[in-house]
Amino acid sequence: MMPEARWQPNLVHEGDPALLPAARDWSGSLVVAHSPTRKDLKNTDELLAVTSALRAGGADIRLEMIDNVPHSECLERKRRAHALFDHMQGYYGVSSLEGLSQGLAVIAGLDDWNRAHVAEFAGVEQSALPWVTARDADELAARLRELSADMDACRARGEASRRFIEDCWSEAKVAGRLCDFWDAL
Question: Is the overall model pTM greater than 0.90, yes or no?
């Protein structure tokens, strides 16, 4: 609908203390944060149904719903989690980038178009993108089951997330891309 539009990366300030990884307890339940701005667009109902079913089946998962709080409190609560569920709408948002910067395993349903653009900007193969991909409720259940069953793998995914932000998605790199875009207008 907008043939002149260009894909642009979102920016996070990865050096901000609120966006740095926090010490976490890896011995208990998998804590999954979710901070929906609009629950209808963030697959909140699907997340609630999936986590409820997984807990009923014995999975050790705790959901940290973050709603109607100041941004600083939202970031602090996310930092204490192990994973972040963004949404399954096909794209990524600032919430995903905040979670990656904080060293969380970030779950989102990135579609092929977005994966291609993100990988191109980051300068990596699509297989190297740190997002945990879940595009529907079945995939979400499978990914949450895997993360809760292997906290070491969850921690490794979070560490890879932070390295991705530092190496491929730094504030300086994104700002440079945006400045180049504006300079070319």
Answer: yes
